[in-house]
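Repro case for the chain-ordering regression, as requested:
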Amino acid sequence: MKILIVDDFSTMRRIVKNLLRDLGFTNTQEADDGTTALPMLKNGDFDFLVTDWNMPGMTGLDLLKNVRADERLKSLPVLMVTAEAKRDQIVAAAQAGVNGYVVKPFTAAVLKEKIDKIFERVEG
Amino acid sequence: MAQISPAENMQVIGDEIRSLAENMLKELENGQLGSAVALVNDLNSIRDRTLYQEIGKLTRALHESIKNLNVDTVGAGSDIEHVNDKLTYVVEMTAKSANRTMDLVDASMPLAEEVGQQATQLSADWQRFLNKELKPEEFRQLSRSIQQFLQTSANHSKQLQGQLSEVMLAQDFQDLTGQVIQKVAVLIRDVENRLVNLVAMAGHVDAITGIQHDDITTTVDAKPLDGGDIAAEGPQIDTSSENVVSSQDDVDDLLSSLGF
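-- result from build under test --
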């Protein structure tokens, strides 16, 4: 399982990376915004994308839209981990095709629950 | 600055105009049309005099306010510039502390894991000993393992203690960044007050000269465009609003209502 973690803050990337490692996902890579993440996704065989929303360059929502618009990437599971907490925003992310939405600050248990749920649905 | 407030000044001018008007009426009642017309000129000169006086005063005050605002708060080496530096410092301090804390946690995790693993293994062997299932050679091995485990435990817990107190120390940023943020908050309030004064002053100028601004419209709450573009806003400080979710449970409820 190869996972791309996208967040503009390195500390948050590190937290997510450590939590994923504790959950048994050791094959992770990092990008600091959508602009750097998109070519990585296109050129790499990632199985899962965890992204923040609010980032300079390309935001997580635009990254999600780009992923859904790409023939090869469109079925990639995407989990959004973000501080954006407005109902309109969550609805917009859902409409753009997000697979899970976690609001910061979050706990390890919540992250695990959402990831499990996404793979349950993807595989089931 | 003028000792008389604009309101008091208006009162004085009003009284002057009233007494002139009363005189004018009196002259008219007495049939002195010429004298009444002459009083109209006096009225005009009062208007001109007060207008120029007021504008002069306000211009000076306005100038003072703008000067205050400029000197301390805008441009290179100014307060605003310092605020930028200060906030950059806050970001650096918090990032440094977060990384230091995570380094220590990364270093501590394997120590706790090792102690836990060894304890689990020893418990299994110890249970076999209690059940009298151990051969003498196995018992000697267990006894060595226990001794080793006790040593490891002592070493690791000492190391963990040290690392935990370092985690504690790594939180010292809160004091420093807190002070900086408080200073920035004070400055922003100060700038706000000066801006409010400026606006009030400009309002007086408008009132005296009778200028009206029909074309100024303020958009207080710029809403994101419907449909397509929805902007990122960062953390919501006030979660009491209807449109803001207050917990992960709210997010889950919302998503499940959308068929997730």
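Ordering looks correct now. Helices of chain B lie at 6-29, 33-73, 79-130, 136-169, 173-209, 248-257.
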